[in-house]
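Here is the promised in-class demo. Please do not try to memorize the tokens; focus on the logic of going from shape to residues.
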């Protein structure tokens, strides 16, 4: 893609179509930096995934309070907090990398 420089010297794309060389070699290092897991939740433990999904109402379900989850799942409040905190920490780690 060709570039031109505006008044402040910052490069701007010319807006034309980007030509792709289909016969070019793939830079594996660059590709691996951009590749992400199929789904971020794949890195979570089942309980962490269940608690985060239910608490934040992901996947089209209504959000549940921690008190409701405590009753529904039959686990201690400490285990519930630990699952939520651990899962969120893992997600933050993957999103900030």
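The designed amino acids, position by position:
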């Amino acid at each position: 893609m060709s570039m031109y420089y505006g008044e402040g010297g910052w490069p701007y794309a010319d807006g034309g179509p980007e030509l792709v060389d289909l016969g070019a070699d793939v830079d594996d290092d660059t590709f691996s930096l951009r590749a992400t897991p199929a789904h971020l939740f794949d890195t979570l433990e089942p309980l962490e995934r269940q608690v985060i999904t239910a608490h934040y109402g992901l996947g089209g379900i209504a959000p549940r309070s921690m008190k409701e989850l405590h009753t529904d799942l039959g686990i201690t409040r400490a285990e519930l907090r630990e699952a939520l905190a651990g899962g969120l920490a893992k997600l933050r780690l993957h999103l900030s990398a």
